[in-house]
Design goal:
By secondary structure, the protein is an alpha+beta fold. The protein folds into 2 domains: 436 residues, no CATH class; 121 residues, Sandwich (Immunoglobulin-like). The chain is built from 14 helices and 40 strands. The strands form 11 sheets. Strands 1, 4, 5, 6, 9, 11, 12, 13 and 17 form a 9-stranded mixed β-sheet that branches. A hairpin with a 2-residue loop joins strand 25 and strand 26. The chain is globular. It starts with a strand and ends with a strand. GO terms for molecular function: metal ion binding; N-acylsphingosine amidohydrolase activity. Its cofactor is Zn(2+).
């Protein structure tokens, strides 16, 4: 094959934009722990024009808006080379990235609308990573390996899982998929290019009290692998690219100590995730660490160590033709043939009451509980007044789900949920990547993989490695099995196209697999094109206005100085007169907010040893009154840091009023005093 890899920043605004994932409007960005990247991999056939592009981006999920804008840019740059059928865009599902990049109204509610700078950072970052991969294509080889990852997952809806048929449950030893599938890439001289790992786990080691933008546990795994391979480079630099992509993580949590009542400390591992005092709102799962930062590192490191072992031992070469199959489908109206006599249908999208309950990884609002199969008259009445009552048809279609939001019947100012959804498979020789538009639960994913594998088998392409790539192309929440759906925990309440959603997807992906196996992808119907709503920006974010420094100070001045001396494992900390970090995101795509620098006696100069992409640094922004704000930079000094003289620097932009109507953005910097590490 010809192989190319690329990485580009897609962080976007790290302040004031709500973070996407927990749907908690209080959880807005207030700084940066680690940068977000888009990682792109292109595999091409040297003999013809066939290509496959796989992108894994450190974002909550790929939205339809992101995908349509990326495809538009790719078409204007490359013509018909990169298209909706051969480009897969997947989100890692971090819950600590900026939101606001959606065109459907439901997602505006918790992300304060459509935030153009956040959307642009993601779109431009993805396109740039593909550009870099495109420019770096060289002859190479691919190797696949798989293995079991321990101590990283629990099933967060075990009571739903156990509702699956006993004959099916008995075939599996675990209620999560522990297998990691890894694709290793080298050039023809054996130089290492990169890897993609697929593994099912929610990147929610950082909980919903976090305000620092970061890529969570799988992002930390990428960081460790890339730091190891790009020796001597700063984080985010170097040619080796390691993507840790999402899979069927719907009911899989990294918070391995399980659910406890945060007020009393007792377990709340029950069908409703209820605590005796305080109800569902008190039930939270704990990770393995003492705090969320440590849990993120522990889970991320476990994943990284397994990947490293699989990477080093990967010897099964991937060869064979490239192909891709894609359709747009109206998911609110699919007829599914369950058997010769029985046909069922999917529904217009709707969310059930338990959607509002959230999960043990991030509890919901008010007094909603998981496992609600009956509505609550109080909330139903408020809903009927504000948003309108669901139609009888939709109510009947979704049974036993009590509908909270009938999003498929809500169209103001735009539809609240997508109808048109992408289904897509890309095959690289014996590897078939199923790009799925949401979060399949463990058992849903197993059924889908098995169905696709048997479809390949029965049409003359046996032995395919079938892997699910999650959160691709458009976000449609969760996909549970029919049996799990009956219990209506969070994942089932969020299965928006009704009880037969999974059966519909299995039928559709079988069709794609058959077309690939019979070399008939050109005969697949394209399906109805998704809409691109004519909305460029609708936002409740505060506008960026002129800023001030306190009297007798300027931007970048130190307010609280570092100590003279630190040891390993201590935290060096400095506070500056700051400015809104959004100014920087809107001014430069790849703005670096901070550096840790070490003094070199040999050259009598300062050398940058860390930037803001490092997981050892934290950048906090806090807004004060009268247009003033502070920035605090922390360096959590790791064991093994060389003794010497260091300093912390800050780089920002402030808004300055030059006339009544006109402000300009002015760059500035600040530096701590020098300090010693002993």
């Amino acid at each position: 094959y010809l192989v190319g890899v690329g990485r580009a920043d897609c962080t976007g605004p790290v302040a004031q934009v709500p973070l996407m994932g927990y749907a908690n409007p209080e959880q807005v960005g207030g700084g940066l722990l680690s940068r977000l990247y888009s990682r792109a991999f292109i595999v091409a056939d040297p003999k013809d024009s066939k290509r496959v592009v796989f992108v894994s981006a450190d974002i909550g999920m790929v939205s339809q808006r992101v995908r349509l804008e990326v495809l538009k840019q790719l078409q204007s740059k490359y013509g018909e080379l990169y298209r909706q059928d051969n480009v897969i865009l997947s989100g890692t599902h971090t819950h600590s990235g900026p939101g606001g990049y959606f065109q459907y109204t439901l997602f505006w509610i918790t992300s304060k609308g459509l935030v153009r700078p956040a959307l642009s950072s993601i779109v431009n970052g993805i396109v740039k990573s593909i550009d870099i991969a495109h420019e770096n294509m060289k002859r190479g080889r691919l190797f696949i390996n798989r293995g079991t990852v321990e101590n990283c997952q629990i099933n967060r809806s075990p009571f739903s899982y156990l509702k699956n048929p006993a004959s099916e449950l008995s075939r599996y030893s675990s209620n999560t998929d522990k297998e990691m599938v890894l694709l290793k890439m080298v050039d023809e001289d054996g130089h290492e290019l990169g890897l993609i790992s697929w593994f099912a786990v929610h990147p929610v080691s950082m909980n919903n009290s976090n305000h620092l933008v970061n890529s969570d546990n799988v992002g930390y795994a990428s960081y460790l692998f890339e730091q190891e391979k790009n020796k001597g480079m700063l984080p985010g630099e170097g040619s080796f690219v390691a993507a840790f992509a999402s899979s069927n993580l719907g009911d899989v949590s990294p918070n391995t100590r399980g659910p406890f009542c945060s007020n009393t400390g007792e377990s709340c591992d029950n069908p409703q995730s209820l605590c005796p005092v305080g109800g569902a709102a008190m039930c939270m799962a704990k990770g393995p660490g003492n705090d969320m930062f440590e849990s993120t590192r522990i889970i991320g490191q476990n994943i990284y160590l397994k990947a490293k072992e699989l990477y080093e031992k990967a010897s099964q070469e991937v060869t064979g033709p490239l192909s891709s199959a894609h359709q747009w489908v109206n998911m609110s109206d699919v007829s599914v043939e369950l058997n010769a006599t029985h046909t069922v249908k999917t529904c217009k999208p709707a969310l059930g009451h338990s959607f509002a309950a959230g999960t043990i990884d991030g509890v919901g609002a008010f007094n909603f509980t998981q496992g609600s199969v009956e509505g609550d008259p109080f909330w139903d009445q408020i809903r009927d007044q504000l948003l309108g009552e669901p139609s009888n048809e939709t109510k009947a279609c979704h049974k036993p789900k009590p509908i909270l939001f009938s999003t498929g019947e809500m169209t103001w100012p735009h539809p609240w949920h997508p109808d048109i959804v992408d289904v897509q498979i890309a095959a690289i020789g014996s590897l078939a990547i199923l790009a799925v538009p949401g979060e399949f639960t463990t058992m849903s994913g197993r059924r889908l993989r098995e169905a696709v594998k048997s479809e390949f088998d029965s049409h003359g392409t046996p032995g395919m490695n079938v892997v699910i790539a999650g959160l691709c192309n458009v976000y449609t929440h969760y996909i549970t099995t029919y049996e799990e759906y009956q219990v209506q925990r969070y994942e089932a309440a969020s299965t928006i196209y009704g009880p037969h959603t999974l059966s519909a997807y299995i039928q559709l992906y079988r069709g794609l697999a058959k077309a690939i196996a019979l070399n008939a992808t050109q005969d697949l119907s394209r399906g109805p094109e998704p809409p691109l709503f004519n909305v460029t920006s609708v936002t409740l974010l505060p506008s960026l206005s002129a800023e001030n420094a306190p009297a007798d100070k300027t931007f970048g001045d130190v307010l609280e100085e570092v100590r003279r001396e630190y040891r390993e494992r201590e935290v060096a900390e400095v506070t500056f007169v700051g400015a809104n970090p959004r100014n920087s995101a809107e001014n430069a795509t790849e703005h670096n907010f901070l550096t840790v620098e070490r003094y070199s006696n040999i050259s009598s100069s300062w050398r940058v040893v860390l930037n803001d992409a490092s997981w050892d640094t934290r950048f906090y922004w806090s807004k004060g009154s009268r247009g003033q704000s502070n920035v605090t930079i922390e360096w959590h000094i790791p064991a093994g840091t060389g003794p010497g003289v260091y300093r912390l620097r800050y780089f920002g932009h402030y808004k300055k009023k030059v006339s009544l109507l006109h402000t300009i953005t002015v760059p500035f910097e600040g530096s701590s005093s020098a300090f010693q590490i002993t």
